[in-house]
Amino acid sequence: MFKLEKTYDIDEIVRNNMHTHTFFSRCAKPEMTLRAMIAEAEKAGLQTLAVTDHSDLDDNIDTYANTVILRTQLSGIDTPVRVLIGSELSAYGIGKYSETEEMCRSLDYRSYSHSHYHLDYWEQPEDRSARGYAKHMLAVLDALLDTDRADSIAHPFSPEKMNFFNEAEKAAVLAALTDNELGDILAKGERAGCMWELHAPTFFGFPAFSKRFFHIGKEVGVHFSFGTDAHTLDGIGAAGYAERMKKIL
Question: What is the reported pTM?
């Protein structure tokens, strides 16, 4: 398991970008080569850069082969940045995962998404209401945290990919999560040795929830990670993120 040092200092948290994509992810730009990403991380003064390419069932991507390529490239790059070759894996239903445990263990860093409901193969709740999706996400995370697969949860509870909901309905999904439910699942993640990502797009897109999520996590005593979900080089560095986040908090 990989875990950053526990801190609630936002300036320190954003010095580790734990959610980035190379061009192996079909959503990322061709400029996202490992060498270029590391150069941007160095300019930004990052301590850690985690590469978390998607590993989805419908991508036809060989995650293992790509990690071998990236590790070979990394061996030829001299950098003070700690670079982790990982993946954004999928908990696409209750007890349903995109990769085998053996594949997971071959990675430096394993970040799990649990809310990509826009994908055709993703399990949907029987109850398609805001509360139904909130409860389903909790159930997916509860099952995941019974395993030792995850180092971090990518964009926790993010409704961004619920394209079938409008913005008010997306906000309602987050509002349907009670403080007690959030506290309980965050505490379970901490006991499981799993970090919780402060995901920049979600953080700024849903500030009321982000404030509640951070402060409940701080009260529980969780480990936070931070990720920009970079798909372009200008998303690697964290310039300006800390001040914007502190204003929300």
Answer: 0.96
